């Protein structure tokens, strides 16, 4: 099986993450088994070359953190939940490892980004048309097999493809259809995702999108000069104008309760949907076992609620040691992103990190998609440098 087939498999995988909640059999995700198939295919066909340890420190720290979390099952109060989280993380870490060994190039990345944009747009339009009220109130969501999906998770999934559309607009990257190039399609992709996110009314998702977008708008010039791409302020102004137009025409049609939910006054009143209260409980649990934590899955088992903050839950359940390992892997990846020639890379990490500050993400694709895409972009740039060096010395 050539690299190209594995790369196509990853492109399909990332697009399917948008509808993972609907790909279930007996409560098990089919996407998980698809991930297993990619991994076993990679091993069986002898593609299992390992990446350079010095170039993949973030993966190594993720793996060490996973081992520590696995050991913490020994004292976990909810082994079933902890095991579920561990299997999900192990699957994603191995997939990230596999992706880092493939020969990604710029064309592959363009196909991947376009496919993710298109999938997110179809998903957004479906939600706009078929969305139902969450718990019978103002926020929109999707109902699958009689079960309401958490609008916070749905919104978080749209952050990265929305940032991709904005980035492609800023870089004047056209979409080619029938041998003709169109940039307006990127505006369609951008607008549909923003509309869907407004209907989902997730404050964490919107805040993550705003932070990632601001990074793109303010730091785009520095990266554009690296890539020798001529910065054009017109595209920035146009993007802002389109977003403002969407807000101007759409916000008056939003339910008043939705608008109140997005207001600063409401955030102060409900303490971020009681997150501050939950974080205080989490801190008390952390103090009972600060070094190695209370065990993965324990907080859910003890309190019957989530922490709604991936950084805090790692610290509570894996202790200071686990938090250092987890945070170090993210910091290494973030530092690498600033050395990248692609401004999208640090922007999508900024958006992802903000989102997981308000949501638990052990097994959530809105977190792992950000890590996986980052590894793919970094691998593409590494492959490009190697090719250039070979040409110079040939």
UniProtKB/TrEMBL annotation:
Locations listed in the record: Membrane
Main localization, broad class: membrane
MF term (GO), any: ligase activity
Any Gene Ontology CC annotation: membrane
Domain of life: Bacteria
Keywords: Ligase, Membrane, Transmembrane, Transmembrane helix
TM spans (from-to): 30-47, 59-76, 82-104, 111-133, 153-170, 182-200, 206-223, 235-254, 311-335, 342-359
Membrane topology: Multi-pass membrane protein
Domain O-antigen ligase-related: 192-327
Pfam families: Wzy_C
Protein name per the record: O-antigen ligase family protein
Taxonomic placement: Bacteria, Pseudomonadati, Bacteroidota, Chitinophagia, Chitinophagales
């Amino acid at each position: 099986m050539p690299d190209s087939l594995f790369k196509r498999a990853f492109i399909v995988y990332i697009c399917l993450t948008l509808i993972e909640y609907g790909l279930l059999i007996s409560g098990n995700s089919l996407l998980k088994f698809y991930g297993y198939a990619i991994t076993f295919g990679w091993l069986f066909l002898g593609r299992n070359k390992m990446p350079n340890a010095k170039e993949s420190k973030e993966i190594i720290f993720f793996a060490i953190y996973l081992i520590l979390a696995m050991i913490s099952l020994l004292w976990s109060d909810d082994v079933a939940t902890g095991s579920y989280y561990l299997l999900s993380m192990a699957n994603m870490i191995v997939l990230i490892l596999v992706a880092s060994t493939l020969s990604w190039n710029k064309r592959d990345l363009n196909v991947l980004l376009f496919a993710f944009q298109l999938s997110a747009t179809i998903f957004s339009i479906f939600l706009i048309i078929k969305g139902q009220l969450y718990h019978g109130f103002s926020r929109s969501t999707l109902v699958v097999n009689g079960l309401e999906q958490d609008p916070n998770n749905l919104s978080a999934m749209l952050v990265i493809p929305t940032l991709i559309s904005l980035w492609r607009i800023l870089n004047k990257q056209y979409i080619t259809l029938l041998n003709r190039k169109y940039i307006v399609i990127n505006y369609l992709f951008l607008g549909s995702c923003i509309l869907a996110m407004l209907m989902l009314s997730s404050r964490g998702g919107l805040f993550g999108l705003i932070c990632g977008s601001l990074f793109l708008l303010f730091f785009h010039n520095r990266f554009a000069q690296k890539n020798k791409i001529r910065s054009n302020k017109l595209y920035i102004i146009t993007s802002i104008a389109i977003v403002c137009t969407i807000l101007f025409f759409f916000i008056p049609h939003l339910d008043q309760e939705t608008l109140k939910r997005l207001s600063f006054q409401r955030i102060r009143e409900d303490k971020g949907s009681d997150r501050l209260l939950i974080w205080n409980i989490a801190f008390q649990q952390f103090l009972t076992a600060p070094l190695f934590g209370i065990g993965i899955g324990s907080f859910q088992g003890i309190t019957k609620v989530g922490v709604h903050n991936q950084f805090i839950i790692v610290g509570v359940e894996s202790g200071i040691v686990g938090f250092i390992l987890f945070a170090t892997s993210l910091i290494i990846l973030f530092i690498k992103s600033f050395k990248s020639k692609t401004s999208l890379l640090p922007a999508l990490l900024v958006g992802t990190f903000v989102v997981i500050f308000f949501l638990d993400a052990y097994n959530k694709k809105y977190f792992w998609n950000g890590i996986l895409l980052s590894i793919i972009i970094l691998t593409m740039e590494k492959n490009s440098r190697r090719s250039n060096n070979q040409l110079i010395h040939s």
